[in-house]
Amino acid sequence: MIEGTILLVGCGKMGSALLEGWFNRGLNPVDVIIVEPAGRAAIPLCTKHPALTVLAKPQDIPRDFIPDVVVFAFKPQTAAEALPQYASFAKTQSLFLSIVAGKTIAFFKSHLGTGAAIVRAMPNTPAAIGKGISVLTAAPEVSPVQRQVCDVLMAAAGEVAWVADEGLMDAVTAVSGSGPAYVFLLAEALAAAGKAAGLPQALAEQLARSTVAGSGALLAQAKESAAQLRQNVTSPNGTTAAALGILMSDKGLEPLMTQAVSAATKRSRELSG
């Protein structure tokens, strides 16, 4: 059950995914104010929840509205301009939860005040169907109760994990934030390989999509490790073993993935610097 008042700043795909998850967990629409320049037309949930308040700019927020949590879900390019308009809520002891990619706690403090209670979260796109994972890190000012609040809010989009070292968020971004794109690329490559092996394109794409999706669902439910599940599928000297001989070679998938994650981690550090 989600209770309390929330100010949601930005309601694009990720903001909308969170909002729907909160409603599914009992949040009353009258306890939410959304600041979204694109207006109600950009938020499909307004049709289902007409009581939602959507404002075009922060100056329209009622003066007597003091949110328990201010959730930032806007694009990082607009952060420096937008944040100072919410600094007053730091004085009311509001908690700030950010899902703005790449922006550090120090960045938020520079605009909201050094004493602001800030939690930084990195969700990923499967949050759109409640199957995401979010990694959170907190400023020292954040209390255990506030951490629990953020845990509940982000759990509406899937699993939640915490790290004490904010420096790990760049690697988190590289693995889980960018990770869905790697999985989608796997499905693309598998379909292309199937077509090269003689399958009709439509069938190759169907097989690749269903195989990746089904394997992911099995991995999510299984108690065994990914390595054990792989071994369970692999018969000695069989077709799977022949393929894995290529994928698990010195120039195979693992070293390529290590290079890819390293490149994404490096870029994340550059963008947050």
Notes on the protein architecture:
The chain is an alpha/beta fold and 273 residues long. It folds into 2 domains: 6-165, NAD(P)-binding Rossmann-like Domain (Rossmann fold, 3-Layer(aba) Sandwich), CATH 3.40.50; 177-272, ProC C-terminal domain-like (ProC C-terminal domain-like fold). It is 46% helix and 14% strand. An 8-stranded mixed sheet has the order 3-2-1-4-5-6-7-8, sandwiched between helices. Helix 1 (13-24) links the parallel strand 1 (6-9) and strand 2. The longest helix has 21 residues, at 201-221. The two termini are 37 Å apart.
Mean pLDDT rating: 95
Please compute the radius of gyration using only Cα atoms. Answer: 22 Å
Q: Strand tally, please? A: 8
Task: Give the neighbour order of strands across the main sheet.
Answer: 3-2-1-4-5-6-7-8
**Spans where pLDDT lies below 50 across 5 or more residues:** none
**SSE string:** EHEHEEHEHEEHEHHHHHH
Shape: elongated
Please give the domain count: 2
CATH superfamily of the largest domain: NAD(P)-binding Rossmann-like Domain
β-strand percent reads: 5-15%
The biggest beta sheet reads: 8 strands, mixed
Instruction: Give the class-level CATH name of the largest domain.
Output: Alpha Beta
Number of helices: 11
- Helix content class: 40-55%
Structural class based on helices, strands and sheet pairing: alpha/beta
Distance between the termini: 37 Å
Looking at the structure, the CATH topology of the largest domain is: Rossmann fold
Please tell me the CATH architecture of the largest domain by its name.
Answer: 3-Layer(aba) Sandwich
